[in-house]
Amino acid sequence: SDIGAQKNRVVAEEEWLQKWETHNIGFHKEQGHPLLQKYLSILLSGRSRLRIFFPLCGKAVDMKWLADMGHHVVGVEISEQALKEFFVEHSLPYSEEPVPEIPGAKKLQSTSGNISLYCCSIYDLSSSIVGKFDGFWDRGALVAVNPCDRQRYASLMITLMEENSSYLLVTASYDPNKHKGPPFYVPESEIKSLFG
Hints:
Elements: H1 13-21, H2 34-38, H3 40-44, E1 51-54, H4 62-68, E2 72-77, H5 80-89, E3 94-98, E4 106-110, E5 115-119, H6 127-130, E6 133-138, H7 150-159, E7 161-169, H8 188-195
Parallel strand pairs: 1-2, 1-6, 2-5, 6-7
Antiparallel strand pairs: 3-4, 4-5
């Protein structure tokens, strides 16, 4: 598969942090994502009170929407600013605690306990720290991960899946020779090889 000039592109964590600091966050949606609303029944598969994972969550409004339905939401994001803005913008009281297994990491948790957001690199997480999940909403993570890290990312996601997990993934289709990304172009053939 030809992903053009993007193959070797690397976006450093500092670049993502700077996007949040300068509010250069065109990827953030102020409203709930229409594709999540459209395919929610596939994600839930008739189940209630699921554990749903938001990789590279930012301050996605969909986290509160699903938590309000009775699901337990867990997210991970490198930007502490994004996580704090999420709680402030939704007027949700929260607490902060260190994550003993990950030096420098924090867990921000809603007082109600149904939203837990980890501030760290996604690659520092494991199922022994965050558990396993019934559902995944990958709206902008796979397409934000550096192309050289996709296999590592997909392998991690697979270790976090419960047996009957549902994985909703949003990608973008375009000519990768005309845009350097992110979002990166991930061809369908690569998605199949990553996730089976």
